[in-house]
Structure to design on (527 residues):
């Protein structure tokens, strides 16, 4: 079927802006030149990003292609529950301000590149550091895959508008070309490429969000019309999309879902800055003050995310766009359809490109974070690497990881990638005691903390298994308790922390004493 105001002008704008994106990615290697044969220059931008670039870089991790697709789609399917993304982002930046400046300081003082570098010396435990690194790698793969899912939705919408049909072959070829270009300039420019292209991407994203949230309500009866139509038609829409949840409560949250809403917000906030890409971006800051300033301004992106979530309701004010989502049979087309039916053709090209590179930029940052972990905290633990070899291996690993994620999406259904990402978010939270608590106390024993991590991982898997009909399909990350549905990561984390603390008390009682490899002033004082 044809899809709104999509034509060859749309395609031309898309291609022209993508060409600018590519040029910026390769040019970035010349920006603030450094020795890119060193891993901290390639993988952390030489630790020379100012507050504005830190703001854009971390914002690039928040406003991703999948965020553009998943949040409005979730609001369409689940109503108010999916607005948990709004407080989660606000709380997440609070967590970041409490933890990232301390991690930045000790990393600069000690030359760390990853969180696992810190964990290894803080706890004097190589096994725990490897466990933290591997958890980050496992959690990041489906996260990158989901960016590709979001990019696929944009390509599918464009093909539907241009040809009336969606060709998976054409879409896959386009994705492959885009990832070859991304891999090339990431190999050449490292985090500098992600930072510079992130600025370009975020400018386009903000233009898209602000334009749609202003123009569409003014042109289609405002949010009053959207909420009215949602109340009347949400049950039929969900039935048509094979999401039989009955009438969705858009205007308020059911009391039964309050524990789910709160625990999803809190658990997601705790997880956000444990992901390797978030830590990697934070450690790239030029100094602690600029990191704090850039992070403190990130709630502006939270406002943008709140506006974006409203797209899932706003589409009810545009009947043709809603019909297109139903015809295409997937909630992932909410934002592409809304834009295609309400904005001029040239703007559709700009918006689609913004969403598309909204997957590429985070994918680059995530792959760099994973490469740093695998090389420094896994491979380097078993063989000696010279600095140049270490950086080269990280570049190669980053490239391979991008295409592994791409192949993952080509081979498995998109819904499976989404299901694994739910699990990945639960797993990464189990590294909190070793990373976040380790920044504030040296009195956690390494082996007790490892036991807590292992217990948290095991319990996470068991609860997900139980909550999802024996892994038949992972549809939920919530577990029913007497208090109501609770996010599984918080349940597992509570057990994790108790075991780490109790184990440390026992270890201290039998003669263990904290490692002195990291002095307290190295955590709180800049060089």
């Amino acid at each position: 079927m044809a899809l709104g105001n999509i034509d060859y002008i749309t395609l031309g704008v898309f291609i022209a802006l993508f060409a600018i994106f590519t040029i910026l990615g390769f040019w970035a290697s010349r920006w603030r030149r450094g020795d890119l044969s060193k891993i901290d220059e390639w993988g952390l931008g030489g630790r020379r990003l100012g507050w504005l670039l830190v703001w854009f870089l971390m914002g690039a991790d928040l406003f991703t292609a999948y965020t553009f697709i998943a949040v409005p789609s979730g609001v369409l399917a689940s109503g108010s529950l999916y607005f948990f993304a709004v407080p989660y982002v606000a709380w997440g930046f609070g967590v970041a301000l409490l933890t990232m400046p301390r991690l930045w300081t000790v990393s600069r003082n000690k030359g760390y590149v990853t969180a696992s570098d810190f964990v290894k010396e803080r706890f004097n435990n190589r096994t725990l550091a490897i466990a933290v690194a591997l958890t980050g790698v496992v959690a990041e793969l489906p996260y990158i895959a989901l960016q590709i899912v979001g990019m696929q939705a944009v390509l599918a919408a464009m093909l539907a508008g241009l040809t009336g049909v969606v060709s998976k072959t054409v879409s896959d070829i386009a994705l492959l070309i885009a990832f070859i270009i991304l891999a090339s300039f990431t190999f050449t420019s490292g985090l500098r490429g992600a930072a510079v292209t992130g600025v370009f991407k975020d400018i386009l994203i903000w233009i898209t969000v602000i334009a749609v949230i202003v123009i569409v309500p003014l042109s289609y009866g405002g949010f009053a019309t959207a909420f009215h139509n949602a109340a009347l038609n949400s049950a039929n829409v969900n039935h048509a999309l094979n999401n039989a949840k009955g009438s969705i409560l858009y205007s308020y949250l059911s009391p039964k879902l309050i524990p789910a809403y709160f625990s999803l917000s809190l658990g997601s906030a705790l997880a956000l800055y444990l992901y390797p890409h978030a830590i990697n971006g934070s450690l790239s800051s030029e100094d602690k003050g600029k990191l704090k300033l850039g992070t403190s301004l990130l709630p502006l992106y939270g406002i943008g995310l709140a506006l974006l979530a409203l797209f899932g309701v706003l589409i009810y004010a545009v009947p043709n766009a809603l019909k297109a989502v139903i015809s295409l049979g997937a909630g992932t087309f909410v934002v592409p359809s809304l834009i295609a039916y309400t904005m001029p053709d040239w703007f559709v090209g700009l918006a689609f490109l913004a969403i598309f590179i909204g997957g590429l930029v985070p994918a680059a940052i995530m792959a760099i974070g994973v490469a740093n972990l695998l090389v420094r905290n896994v491979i380097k633990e078993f063989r000696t690497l010279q600095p140049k070899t270490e950086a080269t291996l990280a570049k190669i690993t980053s490239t391979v990881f991008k295409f592994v994620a791409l192949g993952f999406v080509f081979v498995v259904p998109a819904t499976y990638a989404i299901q694994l990402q739910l699990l990945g978010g639960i797993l990464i939270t189990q590294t909190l005691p070793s990373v976040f608590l380790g920044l504030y106390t040296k009195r956690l024993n390494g082996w007790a903390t490892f036991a807590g991590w292992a217990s948290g991982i095991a319990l996470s898997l068991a609860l997900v298994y139980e909550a999802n009909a024996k892994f038949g399909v992972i549809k939920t990350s919530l577990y029913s308790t007497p208090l109501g549905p609770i996010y599984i990561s918080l349940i597992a984390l509570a057990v994790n922390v108790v075991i780490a603390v109790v184990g440390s008390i026992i270890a201290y009682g039998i003669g263990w004493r904290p490692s002195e490899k990291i002095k307290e002033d190295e955590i709180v004082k800049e060089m």
